[in-house]
Write a structure and sequence with these properties.
Layout lengths: L4 H14 L7 E3 L5 E3 L21 H6 L2 H8 L3 H30 L7 E4 L9 E3 H14 L6 E6 L2 E6 L6 E7 L3
Antiparallel strand pairs: 1-2, 3-4, 3-7, 5-6, 6-7
């Protein structure tokens, strides 16, 4: 199965509905019962009890369900569950990558430690701090989004450029002045 743009959108929509970041289209009547708009109401809604004073949110709950979102988007609930699982896995990987990058960037950095740049892309021979080198990389990334996977780490007495996408990418950027 492929995670198409339409399936990704359907899965993201369900995730927003289930976390209450989005709401199905509908309105409440004077008795507090929720009814979907004609555009929101699908064939699957016919099998759900009509709202009553005892169950005012019967249709609202259904319109947030996987069955309703899948039917509205033309997928089976199994396909939508697969896409949701895939999106959650991607999101967890992204969060882990950002956290790992932050931990690598901040681990073992000495505030105010100066390094001599040995990579001409970063300004060969210039004396800088780790934060200044990181700012240079961010400036490069703003100009060229294809290098957004790059990040800097302090490795012993050196600053090294690494890549999230390429484990073999390792470029020496700067060394301590003592070296």
């Amino acid at each position: 199965m492929r995670l198409t743009k339409k399936l990704r959108t359907a899965a993201a929509h369900y995730m927003r509905l289930s976390t209450r970041l989005a709401h199905p289209a509908g309105e409440f009547d004077s008795a507090g019962r929720w009814y979907p708009t004609p555009a929101e109401e699908g064939d699957c809604c016919a099998q759900i009890r009509r709202p009553s004073r005892a169950y005012p949110y019967a249709l609202l709950t259904h319109c947030r369900s996987i069955q309703h979102v899948a039917a509205a988007q033309g997928y089976t609930p199994q396909q939508l569950r697969w896409a949701i699982k895939r999106l959650k896995t991607e999101e967890a990987y992204r969060r882990h990558s950002v956290l790992r990058r932050f931990q690598c960037e901040t681990r073992s950095t000495v505030p105010g430690q100066e390094y001599v740049v040995v990579n001409e892309s970063y300004g060969d021979g210039v004396t800088v701090t780790f934060d200044e080198l990181r700012d240079v990389l961010r400036m490069f990334q703003a100009d060229d989004p294809t290098i957004n996977d790059l990040y800097l780490v302090v490795d012993g007495a050196a600053v090294v450029e690494l890549s999230e996408d390429d484990p073999d990418h390792r470029v020496l950027v700067a060394d301590t002045q003592e070296a």
